[in-house]
Amino acid sequence: MTERPSPSRDASWRSEAEQPPLPPARFAYERHTWKEIAHLLANLPSSLLGFVYVVTVLSTGAFLTVTVIGFPLLAAGLVGARQLGKLERARARALLGVRVDEPSPLPLRGGRNGFFPQLWLALKDPVGWRTILYDFIRLPWGILTFVITLTSLFVLWPVLPFIARGLANADRAMVRGLLSPSDELERRIAELESDRGVVVDTAAADLRRIERDLHDGAQARLVNLAMGLGLAKEKLLEDPDAAAAMVDEAHGEVKLALQELRDLARGIHPAVLTDRGLDAALSAVASRCTVPVKVTVDLQCRPVQAIEGIAYFTVSELLQNISKHSGAKTASVDVWRVNDRLLIQVWDNGRGGARLDGGTGMRGLADRLDAVDGLFVIESPQGGPTTVTAELPWRDRAAEKG
């Protein structure tokens, strides 16, 4: 009888081809360790690039500040530094696992504030200057980490993971400390400084409009009225009938001047808005529109006066645009509140094609809303319809009084 191989002899009994496969070869370090090593070795070329850029920008910009191109060149260098910071954040995310949010973009809004305010905003950008500092101090650190890591790969292999972890943690701290976005207060200060220029420009434009309307309208009529009454006084005894006719004409001028003053006062702040709120004020505006307008206001209470005024003038100007430019047959205005936001939507079935840069005052409305943390969105394809949505922050009038 053939003897079966015992279990103790089973391994030697099997042929070499039947032996179980060996486990696959693995690196001695974990994947995260290799990523840290790769980051440390890449520090040298990265830091060298950043250092050369920073030195070139600062030296060239500082040398040319005596000319007209020095400060613009320095501002452009700071904007470029932002891009270097973006690359470094991406490298830290991929190799070190550092999750750092991108900073808010500079609020350079299409040149509306003029060249010099935008130049000043770029020159004092805290994100750009922190990136400059980061790239400036990185060169010696990049050389140090490259040399230590490369040497440890051949000499200190058993302890390299600990060395890489310590150096990588220092890199993580630098990225978080210098390449993180500005805190909320710093960001809001920059935005408010930019918006302050918009508010000042808008107020100055409103004052010029009021001055022009007074000069060309009511003031001119009152001057003519005074002259007419003077002539009527001279003719009172010589020609009573002519004097009476002049007085009647002056009476008509008084009525026209009063109407123009009322219209001007309505353009500054209508009494109906102060007394009765948005519903009545917007209904009054809609009644003067050449297109039938349906007004729906769903508000349980009134917002503060500043927000209420901006909402009123936004709708007023949009309805004027509908009357002058849209060719619409019908329009609607809806106002409602969602949590801490006041929403306005103005719709018309006109020809469409409205744009922010279309010369119909849309850019001014967008700027005015943006200055108070509002939003302004236009959807107006060619052929229509047009829908304009405005959003404003909500603050209760009762809370303001309290």
Helix content: 55-70%
N-end to C-end Cα span:
107 Å
Number of strands: 5
Strand count, sense and closure of the main sheet? 5 strands, mixed
Q: What's the overall average pLDDT, rounded?
A: 78
Task: Tell me the strand order in the biggest sheet.
Answer: 1-2-3-5-4
What does this structure look like?
There is one protein chain. The chain is α+β, with helices and mostly antiparallel strands and 402 residues long. The protein has a five-stranded mixed beta sheet with strand order 1-2-3-5-4. The model is unreliable at 1-17, 22-27 and 109-113 (pLDDT under 50). The chain has helices at residues 10-13, 31-63, 70-96, 115-123, 126-154, 160-178, 184-238, 240-268, 271-276, 278-287, 305-326, 362-370, 397-401; strands at 293-298, 331-338, 341-348, 375-379, 386-393. The chain is elongated, with a radius of gyration of 36 Å.
Brief sketch in words of this structure:
This protein is of the alpha+beta class and 402 residues long.
